[in-house]
Amino acid sequence: MRIINWFNTHPKETMSCKQVCTEIGVTSQEKKKMVMYLLENLFFDEFLIEIQGKYKLNGLGTLAVGTFERRSNGKNSFVPEDGGNSLFVAERNSMHAMNGDKVKVQILARRKGKTPEAEVIEILERANNIFIGVLSVGKNHAFLLTDSKILANDIFIPNNKLRGAKDGQKVVVKITEWPEKANNPKGEIIDVLGYAGDNTTEMHAILAEFVFF
User: Which CATH number is 2-57's, of 1.10.10, 2.40.30, 2.60.290, 3.30.300?
Assistant: First the structure.
């Protein structure tokens, strides 16, 4: 919902219904009435507070530090280092943090009856972002295809980072960056294990699991 997203991204703002309509681009009288109705419901849900006819996020989300847990099904979570309950982190609020990263989050205002959420605002310390998978090489680039339970996205690998690896080989890749607007992380090959399915390759893959993880 645009209203919820707006208040979550402007936690210090106090706005009237008219101002909210302007901010989210609502112009028709019918839609303005709907905005008023939604604001009143968000107030009763304790998502918003009312101050002299204007609305504000109910409690500026507090900051916390802890560990980010990534899951390929999108059910990412934040585990506070102080031992508090874990919080859901939507992918759009993850800053592409990787599993095990130490992060700082803002705890978002909670709607009554909804799962509490957090948004990553800073990655403090990177974990060991290394994955094993099968290489798929195209004309101008390659991808590492993983079966990881913590990463749903294939890893993009520029041709100058292949280290001579060939299509269909099992390789070890380190993620080097994940641009904010990119769907896939970017990485480089750090070891070539051999062709997938070969007994020696699979043995090397098992050994690599112990070395890198």
Answer: 1.10.10
